[in-house]
Amino acid sequence: MRMKIFLITNIDPSHPLKGGVERYVMSLGKWLRSRGIHVTLIGKGAEPEVRPDYFDEFVSVNPSGDIPNTQFVKMLSKHARKIRIPSDAILHAQRPDYLLPFLSRKNRKLCTLHGNPAEVIRSKKSMAVAALYRLIERRVIPKCDALVFVDSQTLSAYKRRFPKHASKFLKIPIGYDPSLFFPEDKKEARKKLRIPENRKVILFVGRFEPEKRIPKLIDVFLNLESRSAMLILIGSGRDEDLIRSIAGSRPSIKILPPQDSDALRLYYSAADVLALLSSHEGRPTVILEAMACGCPVVATPVGDIPEMVEHTKEGFVTDIPKAAHFIEMALEIPGSFRPFVLEKASLFTNDIVFSKLLDLYRSLSSMNEGKNSKKKPSRKSAQSLRRPSAGKPEKPLKNETPRATWQATQQQTSQQQTRPRTTQ
């Protein structure tokens, strides 16, 4: 039977993708479909005309346009009962609150946390909104069959908050599509983008949101000693008006709307350094994309950035007071980082990362098969997953969870493969 996955997230697939979560979901849909899995996206916006490579079906809960996460959850609640979801489908949300309207469904439920949403909401919203979100998490997380964390810090934080459910938690980092992000010749890339060869290019790609601290990045840029440097900011978001007012009419600062993958590849290849001075991050997709194109990184030590960027090898990890110093260093020797960033990026391709997620889907699907079997299982075996052992009768595994079955699969896979794999 064909596996069915419902991806639930607050994105509009008909618009250029602003951030890492959007690109993660679209890449995941495309990768799953290429392996014969039926993918439905539950999102927002008008139905896109051409997205057949990414999903089989698209369900929009708000066709008219962009809405914040709180409104998206309300629209999900309004339409949840009308959405036809087969009982054997897996619901995969990109935030815990997106699953709230679907808790009454008997489907297996999976949630991926891209960074720490509770901390981000606490820093951006009122105390009442932050408290409400935490209440929602306390209701949703016990109902999830598995929770995937893309970074180690958030995984540790949620293990402390939800110790009774830690057996359902696992880390699967984000990846990138090597068919979209690879090194272009720097001179040719700059020629296509009309960037002079003698300019030192600092690049930012992402959402223009407060946690990205783009005004701080502009301030750092304006204090650089290099007079040939230019700053390119690609994205959109709530801070856009503020950013434009700070940048003013300076010709050395260029602000661009979100770009498609082909254009981003050129900008990554043309840049001397990617700068990311965020206050909160999970495991930023833009860092992998930039490194896959040969671009080093200067970033703050938040989320999994210290794991992604080895200081002095693939770039520099620094606090804001020293950011200007390290950006200057990166601009002086950009080519020296190239072999190291390419090697690091090669460990996190979508094939490597999404294969781990597919193994988790299969574990959850096997639970469905056991639930739907004609013979009613015992209470003990109903809470277990089973896996075959070569040449021996199959035996139930004690205290088995989707995470445990997934880990066993990864151990078997790592023994069979010789190429480097990501660590858990």
Protein described:
Helix 10 (285-292) links the parallel strand 11 (273-276) and strand 12. Helix 3 (117-124) runs antiparallel to helix 4 (127-140) and helix 14 (350-371) crosses helix 16. This protein has 16 helices and 13 strands. Residues 374-400 and 417-424 have low confidence and may be disordered. The chain folds into two domains: 4-171, Rossmann fold; 186-348, Glycogen Phosphorylase B (Rossmann fold, 3-Layer(aba) Sandwich). With 424 residues, it is of the alpha/beta class. It has helices spanning 20-33, 69-79, 117-124, 127-140, 152-161, 186-193, 214-222, 240-247, 261-270, 285-292, 305-308, 323-332, 338-345, 350-371, 379-382, 402-416, and strands spanning 4-8, 38-43, 57-60, 90-93, 108-113, 146-149, 169-171, 200-205, 229-234, 253-256, 273-276, 297-299, 315-317. It is globular and about 65 Å long. It has a seven-stranded parallel β-sheet, with helices on both faces. Helix content is 38%, strand content 14%.
Write the layout of secondary structure elements.
Layout: E1 4-8, H1 20-33, E2 38-43, E3 57-60, H2 69-79, E4 90-93, E5 108-113, H3 117-124, H4 127-140, E6 146-149, H5 152-161, E7 169-171, H6 186-193, E8 200-205, H7 214-222, E9 229-234, H8 240-247, E10 253-256, H9 261-270, E11 273-276, H10 285-292, E12 297-299, H11 305-308, E13 315-317, H12 323-332, H13 338-345, H14 350-371, H15 379-382, H16 402-416
